[in-house]
Amino acid sequence: MADDGHLLTLLDASRYLNLPDAVRVQLPHGWDWRHMTSGISGLENALIWQPEITPAHSTQRPQHYAILVDELSREAVESELMLLPGGDSTKRQPQICAQDCAQTLTFQVSQLVGFGRGLTPDGDDYLLGYLAALWRWQNAPHIAGHVQLMQQIVASQLTRTNDISAHYLRRALHGHFSEPLCNLLILLTTPASNEQIRSAAQNVMQCGASSGTDCLAGLLHGIRTLQTTL
Predict the structure, then answer these.
(1) What is the pTM for the complete model shown?
(2) Sign of CA dihedral 74, 76, 79, 82
(3) Which of 39, 50, 102, 216 has a CA positioned 20 to 30 A from the CA of residue 185?
(4) Residue 12 forms beta bridges with which residues?
């Protein structure tokens, strides 16, 4: 935690790519975070990573949806959410729609914020992925109003989840996402190969026990929104 209360995540640089507000540290063999964090030093000259997500042109449409769905379908992970339309009907199904009014969207977001298991609950990770998908098109005429409304509603409900999850959602509202997610967002408007898309999707899903998978599911929901709105 910084002096001003800002949260910083400590990461093993040999295992993880960059996250928003994270410190990636080269660790010696046998390092145990629980007992050795007081020994970290020499961060004054560390490189600072920032996401570089260029806005998409309003005429561009996100690509590679089918490949991403296939990759998500292959992943065996426990989530409290229905991750794809037509999935496990015993799970909670996110039902965000660009045409929904503020009241309906507020209810749908309330069904996700803080919902599920994990250090960052399933619903929060799903929302983060949804916000990420829309970020590059936030100024497109037909989607801008929905994006602004979603940002306002999510921001108003952050007290309903834990501090760590709220931190990452708050950063997402300002376009700060993990490096794997940023890399995938850039590929959505390029003629990337299937192998590149699958690799990028795997990098996203490797985050946490289920966080990355929930996030990718939310991103796919965002792509569906864009495809029906742009």
Answers:
(1) 0.90
(2) positive
(3) 102
(4) 25
Q: Hey, what's the torsion of the CAs at 212, 215, 217, 222, to 10 degrees? A: -150
What is the tens place of the pLDDT at every residue in 34-49? 776 665 666 677 777 8
Please tell me the predicted confidence (pLDDT) of residue 38. 61
Q: Which pLDDT belongs to residue 39? A: 58
Query: Using one digit for the tens of pLDDT, what is the confidence trace for 30-83?
Result: 877 777 666 566 667 777 787 888 899 888 999 999 999 999 999 988 899 999
Q: Are 178 and 18 in contact (CB under 8 A)?
A: yes
Alpha carbon distance 110, 104 (integer Å): 10
